[in-house]
Amino acid sequence: MSKMDRGNQSVVSEFVIWGLSHSQNLQVLLFVMFLILYLLIVSGNIVIMVLITTDPHLHSPMYFLLANLSFVDMWLSSVTTPKMITNFLRKHKTISFSGCMSQVFFAHCIAAGEMVLLVVMAYDRYVAICKPLHYFTIMNLKRCTGLVLTSWTIGFVHAMSHLVVIVELPFCGPKEIDSFFCDMLLVIKLACIDSHDLDILMNADCGLVGVTCFILLLISYTYILITVRQSSKAGASKALSTCTAHLTVVMIFFVPCIFIYVWPLDITWLDKFLAVFYSVFTPLLNPAIYTLRNKEMKNAMKRFINNYVDSKENY
């Protein structure tokens, strides 16, 4: 398509988002439900970050990475959920072109960053279990910070690779998105071009990050579980509990992403369900899994509450 042809086309300034349901009564129910879930996500992840930051007993590489995961989870949900919640109360559900592009960028930046961060957390557990005597030498603060910055860098590069392509697409006609946010694959389909080859390219880009991270995680935890089986029962039980929690998070985050962006099924209601799952339920489940299954986190919570009560009494 020539530049002249593009110039003659009307420019789409906003998109219409269909959301999860067209039923007015159901939208009120969904508004209440997702508002409660979002408040739980934000408060739960903030609690984890505060506990890890303020409790000296949790100043270790594993909890440093966990605090970063909570930070990422909170923003992963914040990219799409607030807009979805407010749209439940609106008759005309629209999003500006710049807002749509922002959702595409930040959704992929944060999601890709979280994938790499989960690999970093698996590496941390590998060092802790397989090379315990060298753990604090290998996983020092400088290396942990470097690994976290690497995860953000990869997420940024991945998201920019999508954004520079999508922003330049000609949008001249249809502008309705059958989802609750600006999903990259749905936005591409609205462009006034044959998007088949571009879909394949974007899926390959997502697959490069998602599938690579998923394979690395499976290899890491397989190696860890083999090592755990050969160790003492006491140590094995604790390590197995930690790894089980990590694997649970990995599966509930990666499986929906793979079926949406790497191996799409083209079933609208299923895509919506999977998108809600990884953008809302995963950030909600992470605090529950890591806090409720973790003895140190529960003890930190008790210390925090006791210190708060004591300070109130002294005051």
CATH topology: Rhopdopsin 7-helix transmembrane proteins
Outline the biggest β-sheet: 3 strands, mixed
Low-pLDDT segments: 1-10
Helical amount: over 70%
The structural domain count equals 1
**Series of secondary-structure elements, N-terminal to C-terminal:** HEHHEHHHEHHHHH
Q: Rg, please?
A: 22 Å
Mean pLDDT: 83
Give me the CATH superfamily.
Rhodopsin 7-helix transmembrane proteins
Going by helix content, strand content and strand pairing, the class is: mainly alpha
3D shape:
globular
Output the number of helix runs: 11
Distance between the termini: 72 Å
The CATH class is Mainly Alpha
**Total strand segments:** 3
Q: Tell me the fraction of residues in β-strands, as a range.
A: under 5%
**What's the architecture in CATH terms?**
Up-down Bundle
Biggest sheet strand order reads 2-1-3
Tell me about this structure.
The protein has 315 residues and is mainly α. It has a single domain (11-298), classed as Up-down Bundle (Rhopdopsin 7-helix transmembrane proteins). It contains eleven helices and three strands; from the N terminus they run H-E-H-H-E-H-H-H-E-H-H-H-H-H. It has helices at 3-8, 24-54, 61-87, 97-130, 135-138, 141-166, 184-189, 196-229, 233-262, 268-292, 295-314; strands at residues 14-17, 94-96, 176-177. It has a three-stranded mixed sheet. The longest helix has 34 residues, at 97-130. Residues 1-10 have low confidence and may be disordered.
